[in-house]
From TrEMBL, chains A, B:
Pfam families: DHQ_synthase (PF01761), DHQS_C (PF24621). Its cofactor is NAD(+); Zn(2+); Co(2+). CDD domains: DHQS. Catalyzes the conversion of 3-deoxy-D-arabino-heptulosonate 7-phosphate (DAHP) to dehydroquinate (DHQ). The gene is aroB. This is 3-dehydroquinate synthase. Residues 31-143 form the 3-dehydroquinate synthase N-terminal domain. Keywords: Amino-acid biosynthesis, Aromatic amino acid biosynthesis, Cobalt, Cytoplasm, Lyase, Metal-binding, NAD, Nucleotide-binding, Zinc. Zn(2+) binds at residues 148, 211, 228. The lineage of its organism: Bacteria, Pseudomonadati, Pseudomonadota, Betaproteobacteria, Burkholderiales. It comes from the Bacteria. Its main location: cytoplasm. NAD(+) binds at residues 35-40, 69-73, 93-94, 106, 115.
Length: 323, 323
């Protein structure tokens, strides 16, 4: 078994996992990454693949990705590539990974030119989401994970959105029963969307609500300044605003979303960025077609559509929700 | 369109291809690799992916792999990875690529630890095999391609094997009609095998007849000393010998294969290699299961099976056909 983890998760939960794995009697080769998105890069991918080659991994080896989205994306990408594909299991240790990145089979790394520009569709054979692992998660990261939970309301389930408005205080207390319900519903929605469109020919794109603006914020401000979930929170406010201005959506979407994000401990006003840079970064988004930027917009709560919008209107929405 | 080629092919055939592509009116971004297997590596893959990112490639870009197996494997692997998968077209310019590597969707690069340890299954949307391109191929490379043509006889089609024994002189003259027949039958057999087993769970492995020995020769002697097809030719003789000793196959298989390879301009005696190293390299083969080496053997001409054999017997076959 090929265990991949990071320097934060291993000291907290590594011993417990290794004790479980020891019961199988199979040898475990561990590769421990430094923590952080900065390490989801070409060099880490190379080191991991060469480590497996040195360790004598073969086609029957199984990869265990034990960490957050960075570990899952990188280990999944390496699993997809090593000998043209090893089986892998996701054991997500962050809320973000439990409700989003561990489900759906997207793997990848960042290039200097952009996030997730290199990767693969490679489904895990299993995802083991243990909410007990979330107890050690820092407050800020937990809140960032809530952004992706909140996302599923506007795009697919208005009842879930209303339920979250009531359940948010208990979620922030990490009440395990409430948390399990939120994780389960999030995974159900994601699985249904991905099941309909694994390769993102169409409907899968709705999972990127808030991400076109969010990715531009992350890249423009420098990776690491905002957590991914924080950028998505800000991006969702901008995309809700654009839904209102471009499609005439009820402006209550914007105010309810802002209120819920605030209770979740998330930012709702973005740091200022140069508009020309902002637009250029959005144009580099994978959903673009021949330079035309398309956004996931919400005509009504619980529904999402991929819609092109004028640059000026998009930038006005950015400005309306920036410092 | 994203054209990938090498420094040998572009001066010979690049202008003609670009003139054709210009008719489409779509811009072409060209990436030209140095020639040779040594460049099918991690660094070339990185350079190519970053070049596409800089060039503003998007999901709708189409990759054209214009060259031999190295270009096809590398460009295909990059196409599989860029934005999690671009469409790509193979335009193979060597005989080896026309009858083998361009068909079947295997892509990959080498690691220092072994050949094709990193890669992906990514089918081209089309393969354009123009026998006119083969006229400029050096004699030695052309012969190396014939090794993979010859392979299809023993593993799948005894009539084709007999036909090749008669047709070989015309093939070596590069008679276009004879060549077209040989390429077509080779691709038919390969497509049928791959169609039955894309991911090499079982029958696809028979396409590796001669390759377990051959890969060990290539790696042990240092890549570049033998062409891949030459190593496969030597490996087929050894595998035929092992078929005879281990399964009692008619020894005429060995002598007919040797005669045909000789007429094709291929070597039939391997340079000497240390047996311990030879065995160690074969054990690293992707077909190995828990260190047990399995070989593609020929119980009768036109049939192939994956069979484990004792190390001593395999090494005796190596010795019998080495200097």
């Amino acid at each position: 078994m090929l265990l991949v983890s990071n320097e934060t998760v291993m000291p907290l939960h590594g011993a417990a996992l290794k004790a479980e794995l020891a019961l199988s009697g199979r040898p475990v080769d561990s590769f421990v990454l430094p923590d952080g998105e900065a390490h989801k890069n070409w060099q880490s991918l190379q080191s991991l693949l060469e480590f497996w080659a040195e360790a004598g991994a073969d086609r029957h080896s199984v990869v265990l990705a034990f960490g957050g989205g960075v570990v899952g994306d990188l280990a999944g990408c390496a699993a997809a590539l090593f000998m043209r594909g090893l089986r892998f299991i996701q054991i997500p240790t962050t809320l973000l990974a439990q409700v989003d990145s561990s489900v759906g089979g997207k793997t990848g790394i960042n290039l200097p030119q952009g996030k997730n520009l290199v990767g693969s569709f490679h489904q895990p054979i299993a995802v083991w989401a243990d909410q007990g692992l979330l107890r050690t998660l820092p407050e800020r990261e937990f809140s960032a994970g809530l952004a992706e939970v909140i996302k599923y309301g506007p795009i697919a389930d208005s009842e879930f959105f209303s339920w979250l408005e009531g359940a948010m205080p208990a979620l922030r207390q990490r009440d395990s029963e409430t948390l399990a319900l939120a994780v389960r519903r999030s995974c159900e929605i994601k699985a249904a969307v991905v099941g309909a469109d694994e390769r993102e020919g169409g409907v899968r794109a709705i999972l990127n609500f808030g991400h076109t603006f969010g990715h531009a914020l992350e890249a423009g401000l420098g990776y690491g300044r905002l957590l991914h979930g924080e950028a998505v929170a800000l991006g969702m406010v901008m995309a809700a605003e654009l839904s209102h201005r471009h499609l005439g959506t009820d402006p209550a979407l914007v105010s309810r979303l802002q209120a819920l994000l605030r209770v979740a401990g998330l930012p709702i006003r973005a740091p200022r960025m140069d508009p020309a840079l902002f637009m250029q970064l959005m144009r580099g988004d994978k959903k673009s077609v021949s330079g035309m930027v398309r956004y996931v917009l919400i005509p009504a709560i619980g529904q999402a559509e991929l819609v092109a919008a004028p640059d000026e209107m998009a930038l006005a929405c950015v400005a309306a929700h920036s410092e």
